[in-house]
Amino acid sequence: MPTIKSYNKRLEALRSERSTFIPLYRELSDYHLAHRGRFLTSDRNKGFKRNTKQINNTSRLSNRTLASGMMSGITSPARPWFRLSSGDSQLDDITSVKIWLHEVQKTMYKVFSSSNTYNALHQLYSELGVFATAAMGVYEDFEDVIWCKPYTVGSYMLGMDGQNISDSFYREYEISVAQCVKQFGIENVSAAVKDQWDKGNTESWVKIVHLIEPNDDRDMNSPKASEKPFRSVYYEAAKGSRDAADKCLRESGFDEFPVMTPRWDVTGEDVYATDCPGMTCLGDAKALQLAERRKYQALDKIANPPLQGPVSLKDKMKNGRPSADEITWHADGDGGQLSSIYGNYRPDIGAINNEIMSVETRIQHAFYEDLFLMLASSDRRQITAREVAEKHEEKLLMLGPVLERLHTELLDPLIDRTFNILQRNGVFPVPPPELQNRELDVEYVSVLAQAQRLVNTGAIDRITEYVGAVTPIWPEARHKINIMQNIDNYADALGVDPNTINSDSDANALAEAEKKAAQQQAMMEQGAQAVDMAKTASETNMDENSALVQAMNSVQGAQ
Question: For the whole model, what pTM was predicted?
């Protein structure tokens, strides 16, 4: 059984592995999100100003747009963003399966809406865009089923398994003595904390370590929470007595890893991501702040320059503004006037503003602001994926790997964790026999997920339009398009339910039936015309004085 000593050993190893990223995270915090990031456990409840390096807030606003856009485009509370399936279209078509899947989806959407899931996701997206790595825990809650806790960068350390998927989470933080006693019980805290509690020092701070990691040596047959696949341990980082050295505050466990740790872009086997919009434009953010400082320095030199003047004016400035002590005096005799010490020098403020605008534009592009602003600022819940795809095809192609990683490292674990919690607590109805012991598939139907698929339909659209344009000139060109296969490919790219698309054999059968029906209709129309003609002939007046008889006689006479 691991001991606190072994936990501390791994804690030090994980802290050392993360240490090279801390200076980078500090810079990203300084220039993008000043109050995000906890690099010391004592950083809690610090209200002092941390954004002293930010004069121009373009990067902060651009990241806000990115976070809101990702929220609207990937996990919008206002529209469906995932759909459950059995993975078998024939099974999905069974009424009992369809009803059960619908009820499960509805329940999960209700849980996400009633809990703090969407609030936590927004904070997670904000950190992901700046620090490239983010973390959010999903825990069981008595009132709301689940409770999500976003963690800020620098306050946690991650460990990976053999497939480079996070399976370990270590965190250092501080809570008050009162919080420690209420959360873990007076009987579990150390002697030092008990002493502080007895003395009434309830607001003194206690350093806590919380870890979640694989419980490889667990007893598979034990019903204890501490014997679950992932152990969860709380302990005080500094104990007050030797006999409490191996006493944990709490030991429990989880059936699945409860922490989602999405990363923007990862290099090789790195634990922490190494690229994201905030990292991409960090140099531009620094340059922007420098340019802003220089601009206001130049404006200050124009509006309030240091002055010089003849010494004869010194006595006259005693009661004036500026003070005589602030002027450089020279002996040029009587007369003269005050002037700027810079002479006729005038900084080119226009050129500085142009450069600032150029840097701001690069920062906005780095954060995909033009793409996400359409999602974040739109008040239309019915905005279509096609609108997004047509306007931002190139950016969607660049975002493709990021969206795939988010599906794998954030949304899949979030849905699995929530589904398992609900299932273990008996919230779902009993599944139909067809779904017993069968894993479900998740299909993402958010605006960005659909727009990503729509990008692939561009080539199909263009070739179809081209063939349609040349067919009036070269009719044989229409035979180059396999329209049945074209429709199948288009439906796959859009993620259309296969049940809505007929197979080639069914489509051909319908076409043949339609052709036969058209032939029968034509034959019936021809028959009706023949009957009408016969009827008309039978009713025609054949008297020798009728116009018809006279016309026939004239024709015969001409022959």
Answer: 0.78
